Each structure stands twice: as structure tokens, then as C-alpha cells.
């Protein structure tokens, strides 16, 4: 087996398509090398070695040693240095790289191969003693941190003390002799912590680092990241070993990171940051504030420090050239890392850049205009769920705002919440239902859970490519980074900006699009959905076959959904209308009447209101289908709870309060979700469904008379288990339709159908379809009844079920394709066999979940129905499913 793939010198064993085997980083290093970009030579140990390693109690395949030695020899030949050579040593970096990029999850070791002897060789070959010892101490620090797992505070203390002694502030102020001193003390720390010296043998160093990379695949940070991003554990990581180039050898050296377009807005402008005389992670670590790549970027940030374009025009020119080469090659926005050694440019990484939803949209639409991709490709470029970011509110520009400070607009959107200073506090308060803003000097991968829990993130150091910025953009959370005026005292629980102090628990607002940090809570407004958004959605609509409807019962929701492109209402839950205003009084009166006469009296009070509801919905939906579900929930949900409520109902009905209490008690059920609800109510009290049907038909007549508009009403009976239940209710409905039609001299056009939310209904679908003209899969209840799992009571153990791998996803969020999905398939097949034109849709929460939308498309449903804000997500997911 080939376990090791080399690259460099204009060729490579691997290529971009081999990311499963080589990891993203390795595959793209190979690709860049073979298209002739300047990449330091190196080799990739494959992800299969990682798999092997874990399958064989952390042992390597026997051939690995020899293959690594051969690959290393190739690198030595290309650069003309030898690994471990005391005169002219080859130094390497050891870098992890999984299939999916896991930024910051696994650490890189730089300058590997240095020891007390080779450092002298580096002094001689570079002619720069300070550089050589600076590199050595960096190596020791990183190696100890990543491989030997000695806490980095130990080393920071030594360095801080040294700076104090010398009375200097910056690392760059330390001289060669100072670094030698620091190294001496570092070694003491190691002896103290480990009881043995720092490994001097370069081979031991190399294999130590390789083992650490594989080991890190199973560290807590990586496991958490995988869980959050649905990355299977089985993928494994690759290890890249690459010849070092040095950005820290003087003022004609630099290191930097860039995006080929602005990752926040999507603008087609080269966008990046760099630092002169620096190495590796210095740019993103937030230790020194980086400078801009371009003059344009410098002006946008109102920075007074020169751009790379000005400082190193020639190298910048090459980089700009590579920018367009890469975009044309990958046909996507790239996120690149580079280093300049003595005026020569080297590429160290490229990958498709993470971006905000806003940027993704603009880049996709722009690239179609530029001819880089076609419309279908553009449609596939946007993660449906990410549209969420575009649909949510921004700060009301007219609102008063007291701007506390300004940082970098690192991730757009607006959010307010209570200030917290630690990730744990963020998580805890969010669990208690609080909105929080996480405030840190800079975030690190240990803070991920807190970032997830927070509404937004504020940092006082770091740039647009800092950890906080990158991760926040990935999560779609607003982030203001590098707000330098914000002084954080986490111990005291305060942040201070020029005399104004905000304590933990007090509210601030962040505007991630402008970088503003605002005191208190600022109101927000709805987003505009035109321009690129409308265009892309148009393309999506052009390819999808699955229709998208909405779940709505209020005029406001229905109107929002229409604005978002809903093609009708898939679920109007009439019981929600029963809570409106003081209707509930009449509803209670109905429930607690002890005979039909009393119920009818109460229903007569509700009827005109219910009719008006439907008039409004029909008007908004203007001829699009509207599925109305007749009363569904257990009656006890409407019962009076307080004494005052009891008294009120007693007065209305003219009976004693005691009597009302007794009737209410009689309605108590042990398991209401499986109790007297759904069609069972219609069977017990047909007058309820009768009133609802009448309200629907009268509304339809009214809308037709008033606007000449047709109404496409679909009347849906919930919780049906047998055909007979449906038949009895259909009789009631048809009879009302007849009456209303005759009275108004019209024939009414409508459909009667049922929800499929009980396994029995799915199994008997063939028979039920004889009476039903449509099915709507109520997957919330169908999931509950298939699993025998209560949605409202499962939270306490669902987490454990997911952790133990019993459920891969929360089945109430993502449809259980295997079980619930099979019932849907069965019902689909049997139903359509009886009735070829049976209309099929889904109206559970799943209707807005992209993975579930994919499934619905595959099975061949006609439509999905979801909450208004999810409509664009479902439209895009449906388009992707069709491609
Ligand atoms: P990450 O996956 O966290 O981005 P990388 O493996 O890309 O980690 O390494 C981080 C940084 O280390 C790179 O951006 C680069 O600046 C530096 N680096 C890695 N390998 C080399 C090398 N061979 N020469 C110089 N710098 C390197
Ligand atoms: Mg990197
Ligand atoms: Mg239901």
C-alpha cells in the first residue's frame, strides 16, 4: 500500500480530488504544486494511516517507516539540505489536515529538526543568530505544547519574566543571547515537568509529532468540532510534513493569510492581512495587530500602517497573480496562507474559503456573471440552512444608539444580550434561557461551546481572520473583533471603555456589519430580500420540482411566508386561532357545556370570528392552496386554570363554579397526546367540525364574491387511524358544503383529506385514500407515535441517546428516514395505488430541514410545508435535491 504521497518541485503524487485520502490541506498542496505554484516540498501521510493507527492499538503499518524515509530523502534533494544535518539542516513543519477543514482544531509544529547542534548549523546557513534561536525556542514551545503536552503557561511565564527583566514589550525586542537564555530556562521547565530532557534526535521529534497529530484526532476539541459539524470519526486525519520556509528572517520576510474575495460581504476584492518578520500563526494569534494586504483594504480600515502592496510591491504582484490563478482553477473563493522568505513568495495552503451567507450569495451570483460557474452550480454553492442568517433582523438604523466602542466588522448581523466573560458562563446562562454576548480578549477552540451558546461575540484583540472571526462567521453569529478600546477584566467581571464600565449581566448590542459595540438593547428590523437573493432564489425555483408551502394561521405569518415565496399554506392550525383575544372564553364555554345545545350556543359565538380568519388567509393566499386542519389538540389545553378563569366561565354558562371545576376535572387525561383529540373530538362533537367547515365555506364564498378570486381550500382531518373516521367527518363536511353552496347559489370546490400521523394510518393508506383526496404527513406526531417517544418529555434523555450513538440526529429535527421514512414510503405507495392523483405533502417541523427536504423530494411528495422563515431554506434545499 502507498501510505505516503510526495509533492513539490512542480509535481505531486496526489491531487485536489484526493482529499478523502490526503485530507484537504495535503490534497490542495499537491494540486498547487502540480499547477506550478511555489509550494515548499513535502509529503502527506494518508488518512488511511490514521484509520490503521486506531484499528491497530495505535501502531503504524510496517511499510510506513521506509516510505517516510524515502519521501523525506526526496524533500532533502529538492531543497539541498539534510534532516538533522549539523551544518545545513532541513527543518520541517508537521501539519494535520482532515478531509473537512477543522480550523484550529489540531496544532501545527513548526521548525522541527532543530536541536542544540542543528541550531548552530542554522546560524551558519542563515547568517542570522537571532533568527536561529528565535526559531528554536518557538519549536520547543510548540513541540512541548502539542506533543509533550506541557501547559504553555509554563513557557509564557518564562518569556514574560524575561521581558520584565529586560524592560521590553515585544518579542522582536529580544536579541539572540536573550533567546539562548530563554531556551535554557525552557529546558529546565521540561526537565521539571517531564523528568527528562527535550528530545534532541530529529527522528524522534518527527515521529513524536506525527503521533501527536494522529492522537489529536481523538482530543476533546476535535471530537466536539466533529459533533457540531457532523464529521464522522471514521474519516481520520492526514499528516503533512513540509520543508520550512521562514517569514521571520528579517524585514524582507513576512507571513500572511488572505481571502481571494471579502469573506464577510463577498465583494470581489483581494482581502488579507500580513505581518513583516513573523512566522506561522502570528497573524491569527492576535499577538501583534496585522497590516492590510492592499491599499484599498488599508483605507477601508482607516489604518495608518502601510499595506503589503506598498511595502513589497513585487511580491504582492505575484500574490495577486496567484489569487486569480487559484480562483480560475478552483472556480471558488479561496482562503490562502503564504510566507515570504527573503523576498520570495511561498504558498502554504489553499482551501475554499468559509464565508458568511451574505458573501456566499454574492460570490455565487458574481461568479455566474463572471462566467466562472453556471446557474445550477451557483444554486449548489449555498448551504440552505445558512440562508437563515440573511432572513434575520438587523439593527434599526433610526434607533438611538450609544456606541461604546468600535471594532472590526468580523461577522455580520446584529445581536444583543447580557455580557459574560467565559464560555462556561455563556453556556450556563443560555441554558437558563438568557441571551448572552460572549466577551473575550480573543477566543480559542476551548471557547467553542460558549460561542455556540452566545448570541454574538466581542473580542478586544485579533483581526478579521482571528479565531473568533472565523468561527463566528462559520456559525453565522455576529462578531465584533479587535475592539481595542475595550478593556476586559474577566476576574472583576467588567469591561471598560474610556470610563464607561459594563458589568457582567448588563446588556450590550453588537452590530457585526459595522463593528459597533453599543450600550444596552437596540431594536432590530427585518431584512430586504431583493437583489442577489431574489436572483439566486429565482434560479433555484427554476430547477426544483417540490413545492414549498408554509405553516401559518395568522395573517402576519401568512404574509411573511408569501414574501419568502411560499406557494400556499400546508398547515393552518385552527386551534391556534382559538386563543386569539377573548375568544378563549367562548371556547371554554363550548368545552364545558354539558350538552350539544350549550356547545352550539358557544360555537355560534366563535363562528363569525373563525370565518373572518379564513377570509383574511384566503385573501393573502390569493388562490393558492390553503390546507386547514380542523380542531386537533386535547381539550384540556383550553381549560380554565385560575380561579378567576373558572369563575368567568361559570358566569357565562350560568352554573356554579363547583360544577365547572367538576366538569374540568372530568376532562383530565393521563396521556392527552394519545387521548381525546384530533378526529376523536370530531366524532364526539361533530358540531365543532361542522362550525369550522361552515366558516371555511362561507369565507370562500365571501372572498369569491368580493374579489372574484377563487379559493383552493383543503380541509384536513387530524389523527385519523381508520377510513371510517374520515368517512364520518367527510359526510359532515360535504353536507355543510351543500347547504352553503345552495344558499349562495354556487358550487363549492374543495378537497377533504387527512393527516397521516399514526402508523396505522400509514399502513392502511390504500384504504384511506379511497376517501382522502390528499395526505399530509404530520411528521411531528408520526415521529412520536412511531418511536413511542414524547417530544415534550424526551429532552432529558435525547442528548444521551445521541451521545451513545443510538440516535444520530434528534428525530424531531431531522426526519428518521429509516423508520418514519419507511412509513411515509409505504403510505405514498399504497395511497397512490388507490388514487393516482392523491396530493402528498409534509407539514411537520421537518418540512424546513434541508436533509428532510431531500428525502421528501426523493420519495416523490408534491410539497413540503414549513414555518415562514424556513420557506427560502426549503426552496433552496428542494432545488439542490433536484440537481
Ligand atoms: P492550520 O490547519 O491551523 O491552519 P497549518 O498547518 O496551516 O495549521 O499551519 C499553520 C501555519 O503554520 C501556516 O499558516 C503557516 O503560516 C505555518 N506553516 C506551516 N507549515 C509551514 C512551513 N513549511 N513553512 C513555514 N510556515 C509554515
Ligand atoms: Mg492553515
Ligand atoms: Mg399532529
UniProtKB/TrEMBL annotation:
Write out the function statement from the record: Catalyzes the reversible phosphorylation of pyruvate and phosphate.
Tell me the cofactors it needs. Answer: Mg(2+)
Q: Keywords in alphabetical order, please.
A: ATP-binding, Kinase, Magnesium, Metal-binding, Nucleotide-binding, Pyruvate, Transferase
Catalyzes what? pyruvate + phosphate + ATP = phosphoenolpyruvate + AMP + diphosphate + H(+)
Q: Where does Mg(2+) bind?
A: 757, 781
- Where is substrate bound in this sequence? 573, 629, 757, 778-781
- Which SUPFAM superfamilies does this one have? Glutathione synthetase ATP-binding domain-like, Phosphoenolpyruvate/pyruvate domain, Phosphohistidine domain
Q: Which residues form the active site?
A: 467 (tele-phosphohistidine intermediate), 843 (proton donor)
Which GO molecular-function terms appear in the entry?
ATP binding; kinase activity; metal ion binding; pyruvate, phosphate dikinase activity
Protein name from the UniProt record: Pyruvate, phosphate dikinase
Q: Which Pfam families does the record associate with it?
A: PEP-utilizers, PEP-utilizers_C, PPDK_N
Residue ranges spanning the membrane: these are none
Q: Where is the PEP-utilising enzyme C-terminal domain?
A: 530-881
Q: Give its E.C. classification number.
A: 2.7.9.1
Organism per entry: Vineibacter terrae
* Domain PEP-utilising enzyme mobile span(s) in chain numbering: 434-515
Amino acid at each position: 500500500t502507498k501510505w505516503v504521497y510526495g509533492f513539490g518541485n512542480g509535481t505531486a503524487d496526489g491531487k485536489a480530488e484526493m482529499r478523502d485520502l490526503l485530507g484537504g490541506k495535503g490534497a490542495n498542496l499537491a494540486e498547487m504544486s502540480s499547477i506550478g505554484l511555489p509550494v515548499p516540498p513535502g509529503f502527506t501521510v494518508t488518512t488511511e494511516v490514521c484509520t490503521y493507527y486506531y484499528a491497530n492499538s495505535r501502531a503504524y503499518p510496517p511499510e510506513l517507516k521506509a516510505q517516510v524515509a524515502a519521501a523525506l530523502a526526496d524533500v532533502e534533494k529538492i531543497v539541498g539540505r539534510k534532516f538533522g544535518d549539523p551544518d545545513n539542516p532541513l527543518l520541517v513543519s508537521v501539519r494535520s489536515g482532515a478531509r473537512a477543514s477543522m480550523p484550529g482544531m489540531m496544532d501545527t509544529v513548526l521548525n522541527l529538526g532543530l536541536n542544540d547542534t542543528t541550531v548552530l548549523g542554522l546560524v551558519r546557513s542563515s547568517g542570522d543568530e537571532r533568527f536561529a534561536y528565535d526559531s528554536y525556542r518557538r519549536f520547543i514551545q510548540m513541540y512541548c505544547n502539542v506533543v509533550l503536552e506541557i501547559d504553555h503557561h509554563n513557557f509564557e511565564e518564562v518569556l514574560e519574566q524575561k521581558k520584565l527583566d529586560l524592560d521590553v514589550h515585544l518579542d522582536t525586542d529580544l536579541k539572540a543571547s536573550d533567546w539562548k537564555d530563554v531556551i535554557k530556562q525552557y529546558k529546565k521547565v521540561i526537565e521539571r515537568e517531564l523528568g527528562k530532557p527535550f528530545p534532541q534526535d530529529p527522528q524522534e521529534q518527527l515521529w513524536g509529532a506525527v503521533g501527536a497529530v494522529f492522537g489529536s484526532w481523538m482530543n476533546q476539541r476535535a471530537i466536539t468540532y466533529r459533533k457540531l459539524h457532523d464529521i464522522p470519526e471514521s474519516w481520520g486525519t492526514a499528516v503533512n510534513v513540509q520543508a520550512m520556509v521562514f517569514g521571520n528572517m528579517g524585514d524582507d520576510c513576512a507571513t500572511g493569510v488572505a481571502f481571494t474575495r471579502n469573506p464577510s460581504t463577498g465583494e470581489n476584492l483581494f482581502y488579507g492581512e500580513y505581518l513583516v518578520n513573523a512566522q506561522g500563526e502570528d497573524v491569527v494569534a492576535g499577538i501583534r495587530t496585522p497590516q492590510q494586504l492592499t491599499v484599498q483594504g488599508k483605507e477601508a480600515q482607516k489604518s495608518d500602517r502601510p499595506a503589503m502592496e506598498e511595502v513589497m510591491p513585487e511580491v504582492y504582484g505575484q500574490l495577486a497573480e496567484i489569487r486569480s490563478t487559484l480562483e480560475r482553477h478552483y472556480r471558488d473563493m479561496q482562503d490562502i496562507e503564504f510566507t515570504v522568505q527573503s523576498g520570495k513568495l511561498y504558498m502554504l495552503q489553499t482551501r475554499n474559503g468559509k464565508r458568511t451567507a451574505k458573501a456566499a450569495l454574492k460570490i455565487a451570483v458574481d461568479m455566474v456573471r463572471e462566467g466562472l460557474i453556471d446557474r445550477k452550480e451557483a444554486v449548489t454553492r449555498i448551504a440552505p440552512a445558512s440562508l437563515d442568517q440573511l432572513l434575520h433582523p438587523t439593527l434599526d438604523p433610526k434607533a438611538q444608539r450609544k456606541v461604546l466602542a468600535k471594532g472590526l466588522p468580523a461577522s455580520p448581523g446584529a445581536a444583543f444580550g447580557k455580557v459574560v466573560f467565559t464560555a462556561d458562563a455563556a453556556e450556563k446562562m443560555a441554558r437558563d434561557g438568557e441571551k448572552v454576548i460572549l466577551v473575550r480578549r480573543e477566543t480559542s477552540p476551548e471557547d467553542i461551546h460558549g460561542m455556540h451558546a452566545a448570541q454574538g461575540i466581542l473580542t478586544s484583540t485579533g483581526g478579521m481572520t482571528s479565531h473568533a472571526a472565523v468561527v463566528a462567521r462559520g456559525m453565522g453569529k455576529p462578531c465584533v473583533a479587535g475592539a481595542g478600546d475595550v478593556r476586559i477584566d474577566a476576574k472583576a467581571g467588567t469591561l471598560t471603555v474610556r470610563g464607561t464600565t459594563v458589568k457582567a449581566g448588563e446588556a450590550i448590542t453588537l452590530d457585526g456589519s459595522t463593528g459597533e459595540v453599543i450600550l444596552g438593547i437596540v431594536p432590530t428590523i427585518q431584512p430586504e430580500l431583493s437583489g442577489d437573493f431574489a436572483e439566486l432564489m429565482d434560479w433555484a425555483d427554476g430547477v426544483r420540482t417540490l413545492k414549498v408551502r408554509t405553516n401559518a394561521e395568522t395573517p402576519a405569518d401568512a404574509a411573511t411566508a408569501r414574501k419568502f415565496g411560499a406557494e400556499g399554506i400546508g398547515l393552518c392550525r385552527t386551534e391556534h386561532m382559538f386563543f386569539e383575544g377573548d375568544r378563549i372564553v367562548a371556547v371554554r364555554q363550548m368545552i364545558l357545556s354539558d350538552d350539544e345545545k350549550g356547545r352550539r350556543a358557544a360555537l355560534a359565538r366563535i363562528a363569525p370570528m373563525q370565518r373572518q380568519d379564513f377570509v383574511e388567509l384566503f385573501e393573502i393566499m390569493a388562490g393558492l392552496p390553503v390546507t386547514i386542519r380542523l380542531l386537533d389538540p386535547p381539550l384540556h389545553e383550553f381549560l380554565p386554570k385560575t380561579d378567576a378563569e373558572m369563575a368567568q366561565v361559570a358566569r357565562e354558562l350560568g352554573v356554579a363554579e363547583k360544577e365547572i371545576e367538576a366538569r374540568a376535572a372530568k376532562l383530565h387525561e393521563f396521556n392527552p397526546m394519545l387521548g381525546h383529540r384530533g378526529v376523536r373530538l370530531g366524532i364526539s362533537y361533530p358540531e365543532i367540525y361542522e362550525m369550522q367547515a361552515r366558516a371555511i365555506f362561507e369565507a370562500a364564498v365571501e372572498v369569491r364574491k368580493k374579489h372574484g378570486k377563487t379559493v383552493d381550500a383543503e380541509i384536513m382531518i387530524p389523527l385519523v387511524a381508520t377510513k371510517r373516521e374520515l368517512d364520518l367527518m367527510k359526510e359532515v363536511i360535504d353536507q355543510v358544503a351543500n347547504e352553503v353552496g345552495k344558499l349562495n347559489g354556487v358550487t363549492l370546490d374543495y378537497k377533504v383529506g387527512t393527516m397521516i400521523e399514526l402508523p396505522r394510518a400509514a399502513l392502511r393508506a390504500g384504504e384511506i385514500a379511497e376517501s382522502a383526496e390528499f395526505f399530509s404527513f404530520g411528521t411531528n406526531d408520526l415521529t412520536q407515535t412511531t418511536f413511542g417517544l414524547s417530544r415534550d418529555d424526551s429532552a432529558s434523555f435525547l442528548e444521551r441517546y445521541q451521545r451513545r450513538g443510538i440516535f444520530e440526529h434528534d428525530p424531531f429535527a431531522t426526519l428518521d428516514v429509516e423508520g418514519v421514512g419507511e412509513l411515509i414510503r409505504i403510505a405514498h405507495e399504497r395511497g397512490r395505488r388507490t388514487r393516482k392523483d392523491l396530493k402528498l405533502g409534509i407539514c411537520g417541523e421537518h418540512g424546513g430541514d434541508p436533509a428532510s427536504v431531500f428525502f421528501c423530494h426523493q420519495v416523490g411528495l408534491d410539497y413540503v410545508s414549513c414555518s415562514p422563515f424556513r420557506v427560502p431554506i426549503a426552496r433552496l434545499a428542494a432545488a439542490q435535491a433536484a440537481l
